Amino acid sequence: MQLKGIHHVSAITANAKNNYHFYTEILGMRLVKKTVNQDDTSVYHLFYADEVGNPGTDLTFFEIPNAGTTYLGISSISGTSLRVPTNQALEYWNKRLDQYNVDHDGITMEGKRQVIHFRDPEKQRLTLVSDEDNKGVAGGRPWSKSSASIEHGITGLGPSKLTVENPTPTIQVLTEVLTFKQVDRYPSSIKGQEDIMVFSTGEGGTGAEVHLEVRNDLPRERPGRGSVHHVAFRVENKDELAKWRERLQAERIPNSGLVDRFYFQSLYFREPNGILFELATDGPGFATDEEVEHLGESLALPPFFEDQRKEIEAKLKPLDTKR
């Protein structure tokens, strides 16, 4: 069994309308699915991705209207990165972020890669990372109707950054339970802190990494709007996912068991520092219940919620996503 890389990242927003505007109109990503949080159908779950919602390209958001401020800290997924094709693409994005008054740090280096760290309007911690020298997992393809440059567009998810105080148990889960190996390290931007460790799985490269940051100067994070809920890793299919469940049980790691999310099958568990991991299958995908040309334009509900459509729609604020 081998994890194939990052599958998706799910974060929290307090305002679906503003969130939709930022990720589609400014970042140029495609909304490939407008659905509901299956654990709380009174709120939206929005999926932004590449042209067709390929695995490894979707950044998702649960809308929690009363979500408070995030207080940054340890035991958190403290950074989400988005891949762009080249260093030249970062030059384009540097100007575009300025154009839209997006808070960012300009082009810098992170290890051997050029990046731009930036924040969305809710202070979601994001990074654009160049795939200039990527030799690992291939990216997706930017949406052909993107509001941003297709040539320089976002092609998927890059490394997720985890921040912990004690790295040992997290490393043990990544390397001894999952299929990650430490492949690199680079200096922290925070004075006096340890190097950030790079772990990779599958074919490796930008789309298959977890970066582990150790901080001894922060309290535990209190999540809210602009925080990340969980990171999911790619599994080939449902049969392999069942084997992962057996592996977690053998390691006596509490887990959710197999969960049918309709667009993929899932398995959830927390590593010892409390960070929520998901294993998710590559299929069946987002075109299961909508034509590719019209992904994300209307409210999509898995079959097991279809008989509740009228009640669900009555609780949701209208969100116009017709293109």
Description:
The chain is built from 5 helices and 16 strands. The protein is α+β, with helices and mostly antiparallel strands and 323 residues long. It has a single domain, classed as 2,3-Dihydroxybiphenyl 1,2-Dioxygenase, domain 1 (Roll). The chain has an 8-stranded mixed beta sheet with strand order 2-3-4-1-13-16-15-14. Strands 6-7-8-5-9-12-11-10 form an 8-stranded mixed beta sheet. The longest helix is centred in the N-terminal third of the chain and has 13 residues, at 87-99. The chain starts with 5 loop residues before the first strand and ends in an 8-residue tail after the last helix.
Give the radius of gyration.
19 Å
Strand fraction equals 25-35%
What gap, in angstroms, lies between the N and C termini?
Answer: 41 Å
> How many domains, in number, for the residues?
1
- The count of helical stretches stands at 5
Mean pLDDT: 97
Order of helices and strands: EHEEEEHEEEEHEEEEHEEEH
Low-confidence stretches: none
CATH superfamily: 2,3-Dihydroxybiphenyl 1,2-Dioxygenase, domain 1
What do we call the CATH topology?
2,3-Dihydroxybiphenyl 1,2-Dioxygenase, domain 1
Biggest sheet strand line-up: 2-3-4-1-13-16-15-14
Secondary-structure content class: alpha+beta
**In total, how many beta strands?**
16
User: Major sheet: size, sense and barrel closure?
Assistant: 8 strands, mixed
Protein name: Glyoxalase family protein
InterPro entries: Extradiol_RC_dioxygenase, Glyas_Bleomycin-R_OHBP_Dase, Glyas_Fos-R_dOase_dom, VOC_core
